Amino acid sequence: MSDKSKIKWTDATWNPVRGCTKVSPGCQHCYAETFAERWRGIPGHPFEFGFDLRIVLEKLGDPLRWGTPRMIFVNSMSDLFHKDVPDEYIIKVARVMTAANWHTYQVLTKRADRLAALLKGTLRFAAKQAHIWWGVSVENKQHGLPRIDLLRSAPLKCDFYPSNHYWRTSARLT
Questions:
Q1: SS3 track for the chain
Q2: d(CA 137, CA 115)
Q3: Would you give per-residue pLDDT tens digits along the chain (174 residues)?
Q4: What's the total number of domains in the chain?
Q5: SS3 of 83-112
Q6: Could you tell me the residue range of the domain that residue 79 belongs to?
Q7: Would you say 154 and 134 are in contact if contact means Cβ atoms under 8 Å apart?
Q8: Is residue 163 in a domain?
């Protein structure tokens, strides 16, 4: 979305997917939904369709065009691992992150089951990339601890660091 960000723990945001649906209590006060819905119905605005889930193909190559290394929050306005985002598109996003390896990517999800399954399978090539940080949202013990366990089950050596309400990993293989 932006090659600059006001989020203090990242330099830029990249949203090759926009929109989402609620899956847990951590979604109750979603900043992304509140922001996106403000723009619903404004022709030509990136959030003309509010928070409805959609693939944004024209944003797919953005990191390749950003020459200066950045810390990039992937899908700050959605969840890449939403059930309606095709596996093939997630793989394309991961291939861009792998190719534009001068950046560091922060990928956070509440859908840790899908993340772990893909990292064990078709995304294994991306699991090996140290510049891609895979993380899960941890809003409480009930929802967060199972997500952490799922992330730990992926083929990564995970070092966890608390950051706001998230845990992130450095992607070093075991």
A1: CECCCCCCCCCEEECCEEECCCCCHHHCCCHHHHHHHCCCCCCCCCCCCCCCCEECHHHCCHHHHCCCCCEEEECCCECCCCCCCCHHHHHHHHHHHHHCCCCEEEEEECCHHHHHHHHHCCCHHHHCCCCEEEEEECCCHHHHHHHHHHHHHCCCECCCEEECCEEECCCECC
A2: 12
A3: 455 556 666 789 999 999 999 888 878 888 888 988 999 999 999 999 998 999 999 999 999 999 999 999 999 999 999 999 999 999 999 999 999 999 999 999 999 999 999 999 999 999 989 899 998 988 888 888 898 889 888 887 544 444 444 444 444 333
A4: 1
A5: CCCCHHHHHHHHHHHHHCCCCEEEEEECCH
A6: 12-18+56-168
A7: yes
A8: yes
The reply to whether 78 falls in a domain is yes
| 105 is a domain residue | yes
> What would the two tokens of residue 126 be?
């991306």
Q: Is residue 125 part of a domain?
A: yes
Tokens matching residue 107: 């990928």
